[in-house]
Amino acid sequence: MKKYDVIVIGGSASGIATAITGKNAYPNKSFLMIRKEKQAIVPCGIPYIFGSLHDTKKDTISDKIFEKNNIDLKIDEVTKIDAENKTCTTKDGSMISFEKLVLATGSKAHVPAWLDGANKENVFIIPKDKDYLDQAIKKLSSAKKIVTIGGGFIGVETSDELKKEGKEVIIVEKLPHILGTAFDDELCEAVEQKLKERNVEFITNMGVSKITGDDKATGVELENGESISADAVLLTVGYQPNTKLASDAGLSLNEKGFIRVDEYMHTDNHDIMAVGDCAEKRDFVTRKISTTMLASTACAEARIAGMNLFKLSAMKTFSGTIAIFSTALGDTGYGVAGVTEKTATQEQFDVVTGSFTGVDKHPGTMPGVHKQTVKLIAAREGGLVLGGEVIGGTSTGELTNLIGFIIQNKMTVNNILTAQIGTHPLVTAPPTAYPLIKAAEAVARKL
């Protein structure tokens, strides 16, 4: 029986980050990654294979990274974990022992049991599976009209990419707004306006009762009885944690179906960790169980797990997901970090908000300049920053990340007001009207 010091099950973002961080922290330990997919795909890039990239080959992660870091890779599927005897059994019949095990088994696309017709031909999910996606691209190439069920990030990004390819696309969303779980209403409305400009149709406040057609999908029937014809249907209604392997091994799951972990990413078995979409998370601000699934969050957990494999550091813990989202439609970016005003109010936080709209370069006549709006949500008591939202150009993602750092480090509005920033006409907003600082000023006036 072959033995490794560390086995990582799952080869997407969190698995890769765990293995590399762990090997860097413990270079004398042996590491094995077991991945069932022949080739790993970049999860966040999947919507773009339907338009900008045109091919899954342009959205893959090279296996050379494992050779470079002296990590062994086995393409196989783990079928059983014996936690007591510390062994893994794989589909090819191999049994491999470990000292430490990390579960990075990710998530799987959700197919609602209540949705009639979800298994018909030409109904597609968006999994992290290269072979499936290759077939989906091929089949969708001949579709002229597509209905997307679900107006979250994957649904919106994939629909926008398909529209670029000349398809007629309609998004059907049950909530009042597109991206309604991520943003406050005013940002959702800005996204919806941009979708209209890009000729992506959408229907909100309306669910789908069934997918129509015999063996092959011919459209959808809405809850109000109205029918929409289509050549294909995209099902983008979220993801579920892939935790059967963990459950079968006797590891505890929480009420949402995620593997229970502590702040060091240990399960209830001290020699087994879990990271990424399959692992339990709490919201950084509300402290409630969160169902957020993001590669950025997964990699943060992975780095913490890798560093804590064989010795614990009280300085290296995961204190909850800040849920930092970014997306883009054309040259306009949208981002959010922490809680929205809507969520803060629902959770009964006493908050003050402030917004400012400026530009992302200066002066405003600079070529390529883009409007930049920042909204901050802060606690009335002490001005602690709890959340922030951004609409802008290509700098939106990094500015949203900066707000995430502010939240994680428990900074206040006063910390932002006294911050030193570097600026340049080609790459930043003006120092006299830096939107992040001006939004903080708007909050401070109310405080």
Features:
447 residues; FAD/NAD(P)-binding domain; 5-stranded parallel β-sheet; 3 domains; Enolase-like, domain 1; 7-stranded mixed β-sheet
What does this structure look like?
The protein has eleven helices and 24 strands. By secondary structure, it is of the alpha/beta class. It folds into three domains: 174 residues, FAD/NAD(P)-binding domain, CATH 3.50.50.60; 115 residues, FAD/NAD(P)-binding domain (3-Layer(bba) Sandwich); 113 residues, Enolase-like, domain 1. The strands form six sheets. Strands 1, 2, 3, 4, 5, 6 and 17 form a seven-stranded mixed sheet that branches. Helix 2 links the parallel strand 2 and strand 3. Helix 1 packs parallel to helix 7. The radius of gyration is 23 Å and the shape is globular. The mean pLDDT is 96.
Précis, in short:
The protein is of the alpha/beta class and 447 residues long. The chain is built from 11 helices and 24 strands. The mean pLDDT is 96.
What is the end-to-end distance?
Answer: 65 Å
What is the overall shape? globular
**Gyration radius from CA atoms, angstroms:** 23 Å
Helical content class: 10-25%
Number of helices: 11
Instruction: Give the count of structural domains.
Output: 3
Summed over residues and divided by their number, the pLDDT gives a mean of: 96
Low-confidence stretches: none
Structural class: alpha/beta
The count of DSSP E runs of length 2 or more, i.e. the number of strands, is 24
Q: What name is given to the CATH topology of the largest domain? A: FAD/NAD(P)-binding domain
User: What is the assigned CATH homologous superfamily of the largest domain?
Assistant: FAD/NAD(P)-binding domain
How much of the sequence is in beta strands?
25-35%
What is the level 1 CATH name of the largest domain? Alpha Beta
Largest sheet: 7 strands, mixed
Q: How does CATH name the architecture of the largest domain?
A: 3-Layer(bba) Sandwich
